[in-house]
Amino acid sequence: MDRDVELVERAMVAIRRRQSRRALAKHMPVDPAVFGVLDAVEDRGPCSVTDLTGALGVDQPRASRLVARAVDEGLLVRQADQHDGRRTLVSLTASGKRQVEAAHEARQRVFAEAMADWPDRDRATFARLLTRFIDALDT
Predict the structure, then answer these.
(1) Is the pTM of this model over 0.85?
(2) What's the CA angle centered on 82, arms 81 and 84, to 5 degrees?
(3) Distance of alpha carbon 60 from the chain centroid
(4) Model confidence over 70-110: pLDDT tens digits?
(5) Per DSSP, what are the bridge partners of residue 78?
(6) I need a labelling partner for 26 at 20 to 30 A (CA). Which of 83, 84, 113, 128 fits?
């Protein structure tokens, strides 16, 4: 196997471990599990619980529990789908939007600190290549 690919794989595993150990959790304004729901709804706009299962990488019952928790905490609101009355959509409340913004700012501070001593050119190159890599994974 290509050594560079191996290094990328190991780095991605390390990122995943840090997230699963909630290394960033102390910087988050809400529980990371709930934030995952908010982040997915922000990305998709109003959507159903079923729409969120793939984005969250969880099954329907787990997605339903996370959505219910976010609704109970006033971060999401349920509404009827205007195109299909049988479906219910969830969307961010004003409080949910504030929490998402606060979480983005907190994560960006952590990432900025991690790259604080990097030259601007390296930061720009890393951002470009990481974005390109993630985009390629989605195709």
Answers:
(1) no
(2) 65
(3) 18
(4) 999 999 999 987 887 778 999 999 999 999 998 888 889 98
(5) 90
(6) 128
